[in-house]
Amino acid sequence: MNIWKYAVLPLSIVLFAGCAQKKVAAVYPPLIVADATPLISKSKRSIGVTVNFENIAHDNYQYARFKLTAFDDAGNSIRPKKGNRDSAYVRLAGPIAPGQTRSTTWTNTWANKNVQCISLDEVELIFPDGSIEIAKNDRLLSKQEGNSCI
User: Fold this and answer.
1) pLDDT digits over 15-34, tens only?
2) Residue 108, by phi and psi: left (phi above 0), alpha (psi -120 to 50) or beta?
C-alpha cells in the first residue's frame, strides 16, 4: 500500500502539469512612432528632425534615445553633422507618462541639405527603475505609411 502512495503522488503531479496551460506574457511594443520627418533650418544650412510618438508602455520613460538614419533621393545614407557614425543619435529627457504623445524637434542634425527621408532604426528607452529596453524592427509600431527610405 505504501508503494501506491508514493507512485500516485508523482503520477498525479505529472498529469496535472500536463493539463495546466502556461501563461505567456504578451509583449507589446513600447511606443508608437507616428513619423520622423526632416526639418529644414531657417538659414537652410542644416537639416533637423521632428519625431512624433506615443508611450504605450505601462510605465514612464525617464529617457528615450532615437537612432535615425537620413537618406538622399538616390537612397544613399547621409552622415550626421557630429560623429563618425552612419546614424544620428538624439536623446529626449522625460518623464514621459503612459499614454502621453510627444512631438520633439532637434535641429542641426545633418549638414547635407539633400535629406529626403529619415528612417527611425531603433529607440532605447530607460525606465525609472534603471531598466533599459531597445525597441527596433517589430518592436516599433509605425503609423507612417509608405516609408520611402526602404
Assistant:
1) 444 544 443 344 556 666 76
2) left
